[in-house]
Design brief:
There is one protein chain. By secondary structure, this protein is mainly alpha-helical. The chain is built from 25 helices and five strands. Strands 3-4-5 form a three-stranded antiparallel β-sheet. A hairpin with a 4-residue loop joins strand 3 and strand 4. Helix 10 packs antiparallel against helix 11, helix 10 packs antiparallel against helix 12 and helix 18 packs across helix 20.
Length: about 500
């Protein structure tokens, strides 16, 4: 795909690696040298992961992450152990288990959330399986594995571990919602501030109010104080364990931890509005924040931002036939138009998205009178906020270039990737046209009745189930005859390995 950088490139998003944002040789920096009005955005989805890494570093939650990784590899590398866990769950709980998923490495917050939820959901089954393998009565479990399993159980069968796991899930549930929004290709730049405010508000509430997972944990937990032995016995589902002391631990600094998470998020997103284009775009595009209560305020709202943005993208607008002088008059008319026809739908969650979708996509609307200002607004709406789509393309490329497809041409790979990323869904795809094109596009006629592998019968084209036996029989005869003085004639050599009724 050919892109004219000077007249078509308006923005790009990437992670914070030096190869992208390096001061001199970064890719986006070099692009910006050719197109000064280009807007470079540090991927908002990657910022979340960096904020979580900052918040959880050198805390008890990093120990939970380490244990999640150990459990994942335990069942990932041993199908036998995974089968045992499934059978154990079916026998004891009459339910299925979720295979532990990978949560470390290049993974989004939602992957870590899924791993934690699977661990808490199947906690009893995993503990029972660990106890069976660490009992010392199984010959198929090595002594070193027994020691590892016992150390895992020592961490798992602990009030502190379960408490922090449930708190971890409550925090990640709120953060994952924001992460998934930022990963979407259809997220506009004005939604960054919305998602940050709502997520921080939800996390702040968790400082004083227990989340749903922490409440469920406390409801399932049974506590029995043993005054004679100066200990507390816990019963969580089918798992029993003890801890020293006569009171349930309450010294966990939940509020301090959540405060640290909020501070790390705010620090990572502190400079998101430092780019004047991003800040002004967010104010202009969010229709819910327009002052509809006063016509005077509405007429003056965003005028300075539109003039500034028009000057910033002037070269691109003019190159594509836009009249920059008409931006401000059309902007005033556009605000009046939105107030007249859509003000009653302000309570809709996707009010702004609905407005812009109708303005740009629906036919029959008098949007031609706003053609110039809509050109500018379209530039703002297509500014990328994340590079998660590129990360998904890496995974897609691994699926396309499998062990059986290692010699595809570059053009074929690009076509297959574009079909997967930009093509219709399986439910909406109509295969008739594609099959007709494939059937008629070959250099010779397609042999649709021929199977791809194995020897075939001459007339039917079907695989011969006895072919391997026949070939082995002929091979044995040749080996036996090789000990005699008989030499194979030229015709016998040419006909070796072919069907008896074949023409040569």
């Amino acid at each position: 795909m050919n892109v004219n950088i000077e007249t078509q490139l308006v923005g790009a998003s990437a992670d914070g690696a030096a190869v992208n944002f390096g001061c001199e040789t970064g890719v986006l920096t070099m692009f910006k040298g050719q197109q000064p009005s280009m807007v470079n955005v540090h991927c908002t989805a990657h910022r979340i992961e960096l904020a979580l890494k900052d918040a959880f570093k050198s805390t008890y939650f990093s120990e939970i992450d380490e244990l999640l990784m150990r459990i994942y590899y335990l069942y990932h590398k041993s199908p036998k152990k995974w089968r045992e866990l499934k059978r154990l769950a079916e026998i004891c709980e009459n339910s299925s288990v979720i295979k532990p998923v990978r949560s470390h490495g290049s993974r989004w917050a939602s992957h870590k959330l899924a791993a934690l939820q699977a661990l808490v959901r199947d906690y009893s089954a995993i503990i029972s399986h660990f106890e069976d393998m660490a009992s010392g009565e199984r010959a198929d479990v090595r002594p070193d594995e027994v020691c590892k399993l016992k150390s895992y159980m020592k961490k798992l069968k602990c009030y502190k571990f379960l408490y922090h796991c449930c708190l971890y899930i409550d925090v990640l549930e709120e953060i994952s919602k924001m992460s998934l929004v930022f990963q979407s290709e259809h997220t506009a730049i004005y939604r960054i501030a919305e998602q940050l405010e709502s997520t921080i508000a939800a996390l702040t509430l968790l400082q004083t109010v227990d989340g749903s997972n922490l409440l469920a944990f406390k409801e399932k937990l049974e506590v029995v104080v043993d005054a004679d032995n100066n200990s507390i016995a816990y019963q969580y589902e089918t798992v029993s364990f003890k801890s020293a002391g006569k009171t349930v631990p309450t010294t966990f600094n939940k509020a301090g931890f959540i405060t640290s998470v909020v501070e790390c998020i705010e620090r990572r997103y502190a400079n998101i509005d430092s780019d004047p284009v991003i800040a002004k775009s967010g104010a202009v595009l969010n229709c819910k924040l327009w002052p509809y209560h006063s016509v005077t305020d509405l007429d003056s709202f965003g005028n300075a931002e539109i003039e500034s943005l028009g000057q910033h993208f002037k070269a691109i607008l003019v190159a594509n036939g836009c009249n920059v002088r008409r931006l401000l008059p059309e902007w005033v008319k556009l605000k009046r138009y939105v107030k007249r026809y859509w003000q009653g739908k302000l309570n809709d969650n996707d009010f702004s998205s609905s407005v812009w979708k109708i303005m740009f996509e629906s036919e029959g609307n008098p949007t031609s009178q706003f053609a110039n200002v809509l050109h500018l607004l379209q530039i703002l709406l297509v500014l990328p906020v994340a590079s998660a789509h590129v990360e998904r393309c890496f995974s897609l490329l691994k699926r396309i270039l499998g062990d059986w497809r290692t010699s595809l041409r570059l053009e074929t790979i690009e076509s297959l990737m574009r079909i997967c990323t930009d093509g219709p869904s399986v439910e909406q795809f109509h295969s008739q046209a594609a099959l007709t094109h494939w059937l008629n596009s070959g250099k010779s006629s397609r042999r649709t009745s021929v199977k791809p592998y194995g020897p075939r019968n001459k007339h039917t084209g079907e695989a011969n189930p006895d072919a391997d036996h026949v070939e082995d029989h002929k091979l044995i005869n040749v080996l036996v005859d090789s000990d005699s003085d008989h030499d194979m004639s030229t015709d016998e050599f040419d006909n070796f390995g072919c069907d008896d009724d074949s023409n040569h």
